Amino acid sequence: MAIFYRGAGINTYWHLNDPMVQGFIARSPGMPATITRQMLHIARGTVNSPFISLTRSYAVAWRYAMVSSERVPTPEDPAHIHEIEIQGSLPPGLHLLDPVKEVAQMLPAPTSPGPPYQHDGLPDFLLGVVDPGNMGHFLTQHAMQPSSSEGTPRSPNLTIELETLVRALRDAEILAHGIIPAICVINSFDVYPDPLL
Q1: Are strands 173-177 and 95-97 parallel, antiparallel or unpaired?
Q2: What are the pLDDT digits (tens) for 68-77?
Q3: How far apart are CA 197 and CA 186, in angstroms?
Q4: Is the Cβ–Cβ distance between 169 and 100 less than 8 Å?
Q5: CB 10 within 8 A of CB 147
Q6: What is the pLDDT of residue 61?
Q7: pLDDT bucket at 156, cuts 50 / 70 / 90
């Protein structure tokens, strides 16, 4: 058995529609479930996809419930975290995908021609990928070049593959493809900001 979570901010779809009654279904379930769609879902936040984002981290679900809320949740007007329990034998038609493994399978070899998926910036470049809202300035630093180079100053390389890998790891993300039946949604927790955080 595996436990997953999904945050639902105030007035979001899964806040207004109880998955303990109807289960979870993606916004565009008939869309092809390609690796490109997985990367767009994770790296670009494309919600029109055949996937449902789940996390293994209660804390990540809490953060998404807070930031996606229309207003600050309170004990009287809380956001929700839905707890999903999925047994080893998945319900018919449901597939769980680890986006890190999915993307890693399609990455080029280190000697392949063309741009690599790795960045060419300073180590803190990844902080900008993890938290572009607060650390986006790391994304715009110039990529260093050898001193003899007279290349045009530019920002480091950021591929959708790298962005997907980093954000999937940041969010402890698993993608569900198919319907998560209501019987798998075992809890719905009311949540609001912790005054001690």
Answers
A1: antiparallel
A2: 999 999 999 9
A3: 27
A4: yes
A5: no
A6: 98
A7: very high
